[in-house]
Amino acid sequence: MSDRVCVGAIAGAFGVRGEVRLKSFCAEAEAIGQYGPLYSEDGTRSFTISLGKPIPNGFSARLGGVSDRDQAEALRGLRLYADRSKLPALPDDEYYHADLIGLTVLDTGGAELGRVSSVQNHGAGDLLEIQRPGKGSALLPFTLAVVPTVDLASGRIIADPPEGLLE
């Protein structure tokens, strides 16, 4: 598990005074304002954050050190990370996406199916993208019926995919 978790991204400038359009990836969108400072993926930049008003698909926000529209627009696409220690603890059956990426996926018989390369969500629930050796990738629904066991300590997931899904 990494020390930081992606909690949002900058979608571009908002207005002319250096505010940005901020997309929150948090379960409670406005909670992103409580996890600062936020960092770039490589950790070389950090930003204090002050949320503004809600706007479509996010918030207007002011970032420390960003004072004009050009600076704000230059940050478009930047993913923002918070220290894991500032995030709330999760119940036993919930996981941060960052914790699932890289885990080995085994079937119920112990055969390796692949590794989790990403977690997708297109509106109907989470999907684990599994990189399968020599077979490309496959999407696996992240439901209790299909993924009965997630063992973070051992770095593995036990999956029971529906017949024909991974063929």
Q: Could you explain the architecture of this structure?
A:
The protein has 167 residues and is mostly beta strands. The protein folds into two domains: 4-85, Beta Barrel (Elongation Factor Tu (Ef-tu), domain 3), CATH 2.40.30.60; 97-159, SH3 type barrels, CATH 2.30.30.240. Helix content is 6%, strand content 44%. It contains two helices and 13 strands, in the order ββββββαβαββββββ. The chain has helices at 69-74, 97-100, and strands spanning 4-14, 19-24, 38-39, 46-47, 49-55, 58-63, 79-83, 104-107, 112-121, 126-132, 136-141, 149-151, 156-159. β5 and β6 (58-63) form a beta hairpin. The longest helix has 6 residues, at 69-74.
